[in-house]
Every structure is written in C-alpha cells, then in structure tokens.
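Page 37, top half.
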Amino acid sequence: MKENAAANFWSKIALQIGIVVITVVVLSVGGWKGYKVWQVNSLIRQARSHFEKNDYQSALIAGRRAIELNPSSKDATRVVADIVDRVGIAEAVHWRRRVAELNPGSTPDTLAWARAAVKYANFLSAKNALDAVPQAARANANYQQLAAGVAVGLGRPQDAGAFFAEARRLEPGNEQHQFNHAHWTLEFDRDPARREAAEAALQKLTASSQFSIHARRALAGSKTAGGKWEAAFAESQLLVADAAATTADRLQHLDLLDRLKNPELETFLAATQVAAKDALAVTAVLHWMNEHTRADAALVWVATLDKKITDDPNVASGVAACLDAAKQWARLREHAKAGVWKDKEFLRFAYLSRAQRELGDSFSADSNWATATNAALRAQESTEQLILRANRWGWRSQARELLWSASNGMLAKWALERLARLYQAELDAEGLLRVSTKLAEVDAKNDAARNNIAAILLLLGRDTEKATAMAAQLFAKHPQSAGIASTHALALHKAGRSAEALALLEKFPPAQLREPAIASTYGVLLTSAGRPEARQILTIAAKAPLLPQERLLVTEALKKLSN
C-alpha cells in the first residue's frame, strides 16, 4: 500500500511538473511573439516619426528593420514605400507593388503602385498595376489619368485621348484634366470642331494661375505646327512675357521672329543671351545661334561669359560646334586639346579628330577618332551623338563602322536595327544579309532575321540548299506568317515547284498577297502559271523599293507577260 501511495504521489508530482513546464513554454513562446509584434510596431512608429521630421535615413533604417522582423507587415512595407518615394528612388516601384500584393483588391494601393511606376518611367509595371485594378473601380479620374500616362509612356500617345476625355468627364472642373484633354486634341485629333473646342478650352485656361503658361505654350505650338505663323507669334509674345517662360520658349519665339523676318530678332536674341544664366541655357542658345548661321557671333558672345560657365562640358562642346561651323580649325584643335569634358569626352576627341583631319594630320585624326569611338560606345546616347556628327561631316564610312562596332556589345540590337534601316534605304542586299546574319548570331530565336537570310540568299543565288532548308523549317514553325510563306514559296519556285508554291501562297488573304514585300514573289508565281491577274500584282510590286535582285525578277516577269 505504501509503495502504491508513493508511486501515486510521484506520478502526481511529475504531472504537475509537466503542466508547469508546458505552461512556461507556452508563455515563453507567446511572450516572444508578443514582444516581436511590439518591436515591429515600435520600429514602424520610429520610422514614421523620423519620416515626419525629414530624417529619411533613420526612417529607412527603422522601416527596413521592421520588415526584416516581419516581411508580411503591411504597415512596415507601406512606410518604406513612402520613404523611398519621397526621396525619389526608383526602388519605390518595388515597394508600392509589394504593398499592393499584401493588400489584394485595394484600389488605392494598386493606384499608388501605378503612380510610382509612371513617375519612374517603368511603364510596363504601371500597366500591370492598372490591369490589376478591378473593372468596377476604374470609373475614377485618377485611374483614367494614369492610364493615359501609361499609353504615352508605352509609345502609344494616340491611345491616351479616350482616357483624358473620360477623366475630364468624371471631373469636369479639374483644370489638369481640361488641359490634358485639350492639349491631346490639338496634337492628335484632326476634327475641326473638336480642335476649335480644344483651343477655346486652352484660351480659357490662360486665365488660370496654375495652367496659364502651359495653355499659352500649347496654343503657340499648335499654331506653329499648323503653319499659322502670325497667330503663333501672337501667342508666343504673350508666352515669353511670362516670368515663368523657359529658354526653350524664348528659342521658339526666336524661330518665329526669324521666319517672319521680324526686326525685333536681334534685340530679343540679346535679351535671351542675358537671360541664359546657367550652362544648359547657354548651351541651348549657342546651338540655336549655330543652327541659324550665327556661329561667329556666338563665339563673340561666349567669350564674355564667366569661366565657370564656359568650362562646363556642355558649353565646351557647344563652342566646339561653333568653331567647327566657322571653320576655325586651328582654334578648334586648341579648344579640344584643353580641358576635360567629363561625360562629353567622346565629343572632345571627335572634334579634335575633325580639326586635325582638316589641318592635314590624318594619322592623329584617325587615332583620336578611335578614342572617341571607344568612349562613345559606353552608352547609346553618346553613340547616337557621335554618329550624328560623323554624318554631318560627311564621314559616312566612320558612322557605319561605329554602328558595326556597337553591334558587338550591349548596344547590339539597337545598332543592328539602325544598320538594317540604312542598308534597306540603300537597297543593299549584301549589307542586309550581313546585318541579318549578325542578328541571328545575337539572338538565336530571331526567326525574322533567319527568314531574311534565307530570302536574300535565294535572291543572290548563293547557298541555295541551305536557304531552301531554312525557309522550309521556318514555314513549318510559322505556317500563318505570310512573309515566311513568301520566302518558302520563292525557294519552291527556284526548285521548279512553282505550282506548289502558288497554291501555298493563295491560302493567305488577297490583301496580304498585295503587300509589296510579298507581291513580287506572288506576281512571279502568277506569271509562271499564266494567270491574267499577274500584271496587276507585278505592277504593285514594281512601285515598291525592291532590292535590285527582286526588281530583276519582277522586270523579267513583266517582260514575259509582254511577249
């Protein structure tokens, strides 16, 4: 009995100890979780407090620490999004998207994501955001305004009009919507009645404290585009009288004065020079003067400016352009040798090369052009600027070689597209073959380039077995492409299978077969079949800018029809 009593006693003690241990563990875990929640909330409060005091670095540190502790915290994510957006960091797009993901179905958060994406020119992300807005929530002006901005950003400004119109309908008293819709109408709508209404709306906005100068600018631009020079000048005069007028506004006014042969031109030019207080404004005025055959006068004016202005790389390159236009080669050489033009170094070496070549120093000129090329290839913009100057100087071969050099690096796609347009304009089959071959090397999935290779090889009568096989493979992969089918049909025709080729092409709509790129092959096949409509199709093809080898096929087919 005693043994049983002892066993029961120790069993009870063990049970009580177990309960105590479990309770301690539960309380510990719960306490830790509670402490963690408290810590996250405390960090969020700290971040908000620092944010309100404009101490963004401390705010960001606290916000990021809160997210580390709880990656799913909506409040912590939102405060970080607010901080990075306020300081102007493109990372704001990521954080706004994350807030929207944590709050699915929240229209304000999704629109905030879209707004940030538009602000930082990430238009694909903005479109994704707008696509996530429920249909029922799109009937508000904010959505419509953002949708218009995305259309513009994606290179489809003509599609923005419907959104601007809807935003104005939803908030008719909002001057921003009034201006956007009227401005868009003058840019893209050709309907006389709607354009007249838009001009009336802009005239009304000239009385607005916020939109007066924007309305004047839009009216002046519209009348200039329409060739209504006197009316444009009247609007421009009111525009440049505004204290908020920009250097660009003044230069456009100078354009009108010049076009109208107005005697006030020189006086206003002098006033524009006085108003040019910074390097970018001075550069813009130099460019205008240079483009209007005033290079010598520009050099006299720039010599009076402070050295801090003239040492700026933009101004230095503008002075070089004036020296170039004035054909002052010795001065240009010395100017380009001196100083450091920072991000414009490629232009310094280009102008140095230009001066040396004109002075007969070809060896130095070639060396400095190579240096300019290497420096320019670091960015598309600088490469474009160098190509522009090379073409302006008549250095066609250098411009072309620069593009081929760019095709070997990160600018390959852009450079090859430029080269393709160039060789197409010159109707150079060999050049187009070289470009297409390079495009296929850069992007193995580029079937358009491979189709071009097959088509050009067939036209040149070179590697026809390879071209025929490539055309067949591409057609098997893209049977709905009329362009690829045309290449395959040409291969069949050259292999003596013209009837099969014609049957293949005639599965496509007649409108596609009359497109110049396809009509040449289709017309040749119709001729081989003795079809009466061949002449009409060949006539369509003959009017297109065909490669010499294509034109020969068309010409021979037309001769055959005449016999």
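Page 37, bottom half:
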Amino acid sequence: MEKFEHEYGADQIQVLEGLEAVRKRPGMYIGSVSIRGLHHLVYEIVDNGVDEALAGYCNEISITIEPGNVICVEDNGRGIPVEIHPKTKISTAETVYTVLHAGGKFGGDSGYKVSGGLHGVGASVVNALSKWVELTIQRDGGIYQLKFEGGKTVQKLEKIGDSNQTGTKVRFLADDTIFETLEYDYATLENRFREMAFLNKGLKIKVADLRGETPVKAEFHYEGGLQSFVEFLNKNKEKLHEKPIYIEKDGEVPVEISLQYTTAYSENIYSFVNNINTIEGGTHLEGFKRGLTKVFNDYAKAHNILKEKDGNLQGEDIREGITAVISVKVKEPQFEGQTKTKLGNSNVTGIVQSMVNDVLSTFLEENPSIAKTILEKCVSASRAREAARKARELVRRKNALESTTLPGKLADCSEKNSEVCEIYIVEGDSAGGSAKQGRDRRFQAILPLWGKMLNVEKSRADKIYNNDKLQPVILAVGAGIGNDFDITKIRYGKVIIMTDADVDGAHIRTLLLTFFFRYMRPLIENGNVYLAQPPLFKLFKKGMEDIYWYEEDLTGAFKILEERGIPREQVSIQRYKGLGEMNPEQLWETTMNPETRILVKVKMEDAIKADEIFTVLMGDEIGPRRQFIEDNAKYVKNLDI
C-alpha cells in the first residue's frame, strides 16, 4: 500500500476544544446508547487503525471481544505519538484520549491524507463513555502505557519496556451506567469488518469472540478489494458476465468502483466515502449513475442496438440487475442529509462521471459480447418499464372512474393525520372480519388479503401493477412503488402485518416484507413497518381472568397460575391455530389495543445482509436456499406437518 509521506508527531496533533458533556449527552456523539451506539465505540477505535492503513503504515488490525465484554483493538501502525504536546503540555497520546477533537486528522498539515470515522472525535469519546481504557503504544523503540477511568487519566504515560515494533493496542470496557446493554453482537461486528476489509484491499482484519466456551474467529483479507466485494454480494445470484468490471484511478480524489450484472430485477449499489457507508448516496453516486447511463446509451446508438426513433434508455433500465460498489477517498468530505451520510462535495460528481465514461466505454468496446448481453437486458427492462407505466395509468384511470381510489376491501379509518393512523394488513377474510369489528375505527384501518401473493423477487414492476393481491396494498399505502415511491405521501404512520402464527402466515409475511424491501424500501428505513404478535395460547377457567400467552414455552404462564394459587390441571389451554379463531373483542384485547399489544418494528441494520437473505430465500437459485435450510434447520421451533 502506498504511504502518504508526511510527519506524524506532536505538531500534527491539533487541539480544537476540551472534552465536555460527552457523558451527559452521548447520543450527540455516537447516535444512541443502544447496542448500535455500543458497537459504534468499537468502530471508532478500529477507524483509527484503518486510517493508518490508508496512509500506508498498517496492514493488520485485530478486534477481540474478551470475557466480560472487554474490547481489545490492536494495529501495527505507527503508534500514537508519545512526546509532550506543545499546546496541552501533556503527552500527545493522553491529549488524543482526553481532549475532544484532538487528533491527527484536522487541517491541511495533518498526519493523514484522508480519514474515516468521526475525524478525531473517536478516541476521546470512547474514553469518556468507558469505565476504563488501557492504552499500550509501541513506538520510538519503546513500549508505553497509560490508563483512564471514566474519561480521566489515572496513570500517566510511562515507558514499560523496549520494542523495535510499532503499533497501538486499546482495551476498554464500556460504561454500563450509560449503555442499555454491554452485550456485543459478534455477527454485526463480523459483517462490519468484512466490509472494511473489502474496502481496503490488502488490509488483514481479524475478529474474535472469546466470551463463550468455544472461541469464534474470522479473518478477512482481500487482495481483490471491491472486485472481491461484488463477488461476495453476488455469490447467490446468476451472473450475466463471469468477472466483475473494475475501475480504479488515483489522483486528487482516488476512486475505486466494481460492478457486475445479474439476472435479478433489482439494483444494488453501495457507496462509501473514506470507508463510511453513505447510505443516502451523494455526489459520487450521482457521478456514477450519470456516467453509466451515458456510456451504455452511446454504445447502444453507435452499434445500432438502439435506433434514433427508440430514444434513450433510462437510468433505471440500465441499472436493472446491477450490483455495484463505489468507494472514494475525499480529503475534506462534506456530509449532508438527515443522517449525515450523503456526500456533498460537488467536484466529485465530475471526477467519478469522467472516470466511468473513460474506463467503461473502453471495456464495452473490448468486450462486445458482454456489452450485447447487458444491453439486451437493459432493452428488456425498458419495455417492461413502459408496460408498467401503461399498467399504472390503467390503474389510475380505473380508479378515477370509480367512486373511490381506495381498494374495495379496505376498511379505512376516520382520522386523516397519517402520523397517528395505522393499517393492519390481515391474512384472510375471516380474521379481517374480526379485525374490522374489533378495531378502533378512529385511527385503525383494516386491509384483508386472501391467498398467496406474488413473489416480487422474481417479477418486474409491470407484473406487480397487474397483481390483484399487491395492487390493494399499493393503493392503500398511497405512496407509489419503486422509483416513484414518495415517503411523504404514505397514508398510515404504521403499516402492520398481521398473519397467523403458522408456516403459511410466515410465508405471507415474508412475501410482503420482500415486496416492501424491493419496492417500498424507505417504508422500512423510516421505521413504518411492524409485525403484529398474536397470542399462541389462551389459559382459561371459570371465574379466572383469561391469560393470553405469546410464547411456545408455557413455563412462565404456569408460574403465573402458581402465584395465583390455581392448579394448572384445573385450567384449560387453547392453542390458537389462526387469527380467525379469535372473536373481535379477543383480537382487540390481545393484538390491536395499543395499551396491551406487542408490535415488532421491522428494522434494517444491514442493507447488504438484508439483500443477501431475500435473494437466498426468495430468488431463483435453489442451491443457496437448500444450504440455508440445512444450516438453520436446528433453530426451527414451529413446523407444520
């Protein structure tokens, strides 16, 4: 890896302000004090090692979850400088860990060319939010150590030995008085650091979990970089060309792109800036899309695949079935958007677009068979888009002629404020009838569905608009689908899927979630989708208040009976096979009353993992699905025979 030639000493560590209020307002610095915020602490320390890798001084990072949820992060970079800082008059390492915005990542004369993370906030914030931190540095021929508790120094920097190695080791225990939980999720960390290894080719990242009886370990090292990333993303998909296309260019803004087309109908494009996942896109993504659209249209016209009378292919036609990863390194990134994950640097658009134009047009000319295969899919997507437009217009015209534009089976609510309104999408007319009678008509709407719906993973938009199972859902939500989806137009703040607690109900729920993920993804990202949790059992006895139980294991229910002094053998137990077995009052009391119901919010922690699981479970490839079933059969709790 090329080294960024620059001094990295005390003079390069700039102090902007003191460390204040982090413990009082941790959410301002790490987003939340939930498990997501807990993981963020690890990411911040690892980012410091990755920044050393970006500068060309580190090629290995290890992350270990030790017993007791202690985190240890070790890298073989240059080591944090240990000399006295000219401004703070304490060691530079102590300055980095006790002063907010003190780091080697600020200003044009900093110790880094580019950096990720929170740009110097990380180390001091992790220190402030930890019970203790132990820092060990190898540098300048020595081994140095210092310790902190609650953000304050308890052991000043001292030399504890000699070494000809360099690097930094950080061990810390998050503060349980601040965080909701200290239990790290190994799978989440593993996915994050696999992604990090893809984005930094040649960097080896080791992850280990030593909390259980049997240690869990993984090692990620990809010389192929983003090419390896795309191959990983497409491992369960049918590809249109064997190898991903690769684009790389150094310069003022280094750009790395890899893309590959599959037979799928959805597009999956992931963009990163300085290793930060820009989930809202930005100027780098815009440059990629513009370049992609221009190159394919120019090639199609030049080779008579498209005639002048045909007009141009739209960007969405050209992106159908694409899997792409875009990574740019920007010295001073400007982030915008609601979650500050949208790149705003205007010069990046032209840089990325120009590079895509140059490299991709050359690739297509040199690989005419691949170009032809991709463009055949693009033309097919264009025809399907036109068919979808006609189907959409037909639906609109049909609705305009009817007395209402809402589906006939929808029992709407009287409230018009979408923020307080909720719609239950219910399996079957029987359960739908009970739900309609039991609901609160002021703010609860009911939409019954019958039978299995279309698997959208295997269908284009034109099929969806003509589907009699999905069309009512589209009309009821009221915000369109796909590229036309507008989250501001949703008619209900909560979209609640309510199905039977059996295999068929789980299948219908999965089909609906696949539809929302592929064609109404902002609905999930915005936190509008929920799963209702109907009870599995009712325990009843004359003269006793009914007990509804939501778990297969009845041990807790029997404990309640015991506390009430009621022998379990005197109590009848009813196992609900479906929602239709409950009368309206029971359905309201157990599943629909906001005061007593249990709702599970559908969250998307990892878009890449979500895409993978939908592809495996709902896609055309049988092999990966069979493997998934074999790997997870041991976890099955309920199986209808």
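Margin note: The chain has three domains: 10-220, 226-385, 403-534+600-635.
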